[in-house]
Specification:
Blueprint: H1 15-18, E1 27-36, E2 39-46, H2 56-66, H3 68-75, E3 86-90, E4 99-104, H4 114-126, E5 137-144, E6 147-156, E7 159-166, E8 170-181, E9 185-193, E10 197-202, H5 215-232, E11 246-252, E12 263-269, E13 273-274, H6 280-292, E14 302-306, E15 312-323, E16 326-335, E17 337-347
Length: 360
């Protein structure tokens, strides 16, 4: 609308009109969006079909085999993007669990996600998935595909804050493993488990710095390592074959000796997806690796910084335990998550791109 001075005036819409879609056909999905250290989390709130299965792991298999089109709808463009991450709350078979969760990304479904657990802790309290919040912390038991993770959410005067969680048993699978990369030659890596398996290597091996090098160069190096480890190293997990796969590679700044200064890393996982946060399950695995090498002691807290955004988590080994024959530790990871919005997505039947696409 033009004013008499020839300037354009803003059109004021009613709040009711702003929040409603015009008449349309197609299924709707409602989500709550959050981020932890810059890494997104899209929590599916409603509109998802029933997920069948008698365990969280069997539900993970079910969505992969029968509902994967909805992962693409919510993670891919035009509703998401290449590095979108999601969580679907499901029922757990464990009586002590407050909720179960399935994680999703650009490639499929992971077994553990620390940044998502931190966000889900807040979400569970705020959306009343736990009955009676307690101050100063409310415990939320989250059943992830890798096992039960206990989160503790700061709670005061009706408001949630920071979150810490206790990991499943984390362990070092192998150290000083040599793999052959076509472009970079032989590279020595460590492999550790923090709810998911990661390969660890100092970025300086590739002439890179996790905080200053181009993201594309870091992704190329990490992806080359991931592909080599997947083809040359056979992984196994003592409790389930569903957990025995390499989730990604974490490039580090090499500062593994204990220090009060932050140590930086960048995680490249799934289909070359870049984690904006320090990576909660990666911090878990890296603490387990440092403890295995005798570089840290129980209850020594380290600060881990994202090479991508500078955001920080803290991590510390709090208890020795076992996972099958592996010597393991329980790791406590702490961070903050924030809400970014809520959305209702529609799938109009005449939209030929409704099922999503990715630009690589």
């Amino acid at each position: 609308m033009a004013t008499r001075q020839g300037e354009w005036a803003l059109v004021t819409w009613s709040t009711e009109m702003e929040m409603q879609l015009p008449p349309h056909e197609g299924d709707e999905l409602s989500v709550v969006d959050m981020h932890t250290g810059g890494e997104p989390l899209r929590i599916i709130h409603s509109g998802y079909p029933e997920v069948k299965g008698d365990s969280v792991l069997s539900k993970r298999r079910y969505v992969r085999e029968h509902l994967d089109h909805l992962r693409r709808v919510l993670m891919f463009e035009p509703r998401g993007h290449y590095d979108m991450y999601g969580a679907l709350v499901v029922d757990s078979e464990l009586p002590e669990a407050d909720l179960g969760v399935l994680f999703m990304h650009n490639e499929g479904y992971s077994t553990m996600c620390g940044h998502a657990v931190i966000a889900l802790g807040r979400f569970a309290v705020d959306y009343k998935l736990v009955k009676e919040p307690q101050s100063p912390e409310t415990q939320v038991n989250i059943h992830c595909p890798c096992g039960l993770v206990k989160a503790f959410v700061e709670y005061s005067e009706g408001k949630t804050g920071g979150v810490r969680f206790l990991s499943v048993p984390a362990f070092t699978f192998a150290t000083d493993v040599t793999v052959s990369l076509e472009r970079f030659g032989d590279v020595t890596v460590d492999i550790s488990y923090g709810g998911a398996f990661y390969a660890f290597v100092d970025a300086k091996r590739f002439g890179l710095d996790v905080t200053t090098s181009r993201t594309r160069d870091l992704v190329d190096a990490a992806t080359a390592v991931t592909n080599a480890v997947k083809s040359q190293v056979k992984l196994y997990h003592p409790t389930s074959d569903d957990l025995a796969f390499l989730y990604g590679t974490i490039l580090t700044d090499g500062k593994d000796d204990y220090s009060s200064d932050p140590t930086a890393n960048m995680c490249v996982f799934a289909e070359a997806q870049v984690d904006r946060s320090p990576t909660g399950s990666g911090v878990t695995a890296r603490v387990a690796l440092q403890y295995h090498r005798g570089l840290i002691r129980l209850n020594q807290t380290r600060t881990f910084q994202s090479g991508a955004t500078g955001s920080q988590f803290t991590g510390r080994a709090v208890e020795e335990t076992k996972c099958g024959d592996f010597k393991a530790v329980v790791v406590e990871v702490s961070g903050r998550a924030f809400y970014t919005g809520v959305s209702r997505f529609v799938q109009e039947p005449e939209d030929k791109l409704t099922h999503g696409f990715l630009l690589k």
